[in-house]
Amino acid sequence: MNIVNEILKYKSMSIIGNYKNVGKTTTLNYILKECISKNIILGLTSIGVDGEGVDVVTKTYKPRIYVNKNTIIATARSLVLGSDITKEILEITNITTPLGNIVIFKSLSDGYIELAGPSINTQIKYICERLRYYGADLSIVDGALSRKTLGSPSITDSTVFCSGAVINKDVNKAVEKIIYEANILNLEKINDNKLYEVYKNIKNQKVSLVNKDYSYKSLNINTTLNSSKEIIDSVDENTRYVVINGIVTNSFINDFIKSGNKYKNITILVEDSTKIFLDKDIFDKYVKLKGNIKAINKVNLIGISINPTSIEGYSFDEEYFINSIQSKTNIKVFNVMNL
């Protein structure tokens, strides 16, 4: 499978990573180059700042973002003024950032840019719509560190997950972590048509309980954080689903495990798998004890981009590293440096 051909099946995509220096910008630049060669008009934005020559946290060299003529770009005003490419301003939005309002412009020449997009997911979704409005065939959102919620299907149509050697010096432990996080992102959605009918009425509530007869009640909870006792106390023998409009954390699942056997007959449902923030050992323990977690909507994970070289000075055997991951997933695994 050619990953770029797969990407071009969609109108929008996000690039997310689980660590710094896993090759997110390198992956982005590869996709930009390949799409340009196919005469695709690209839209480009980000969460956070990207494209700077030196990483502001680690002080290490970072690949810069190079765009071609006719790319539609959304970035902060001060970065627009600082870019030396010729540009046509299309829109100055009301979305603010520490670097100024988000400006949408068309590049009239090739050159390097820095990206600083909105910090709120609903704003990112709006920007993607505007990029499309101004002519982008594909809108790409470059994600900040650990902002995996960008992969939500409510924001972008597809997602590429970036990881690599930097996450662990032990190749087998690195493979294990990458597979776990990819599998979480790729979590299947619940197969229950009656539940989806009910969900229309409760999707804006923080926590709702759906019974075996599909009657339901929403709890008076503002956040799922520190509310596990209240949620668990509301579960009874008639509960089929606990529907959570928020994140699921280690402490939440641990509290469910400690509560006895209540959780064994229910399924915890999240909006999508980007809302699951569980360590592997906690998730594995819960599943082993017959706990069940599913998603309402499925993340469209179309590729895993792997960087076999760490900034800490060590590298893995690329073939072994990639094949070890590929053998445990049906998602395309690749290194853009060797495509």
Number of helices: 10
Return the string of H and E elements.
HEHEEEEHEEEEHEEHHEEHEEHEEHEEHE
Described by strand count, sense and barrel closure, the largest sheet is: 9 strands, mixed
- Roughly what percent helix? 25-40%
Across the major sheet, the strand order is 6-7-5-2-10-1-11-19-20
**Count of the separate structural domains:** 2
What is the secondary structure topology, with strand pairs?
Blueprint: H1 3-7, E1 12-17, H2 24-37, E2 42-46, E3 48-50, E4 65-67, E5 72-76, H3 77-82, E6 87-92, E7 102-107, E8 111-113, E9 115-117, H4 121-133, E10 138-142, E11 158-164, H5 171-185, H6 193-202, E12 207-211, E13 216-218, H7 228-234, E14 239-244, E15 248-249, H8 250-258, E16 267-272, E17 276-277, H9 280-288, E18 293-297, E19 301-307, H10 318-326, E20 333-334
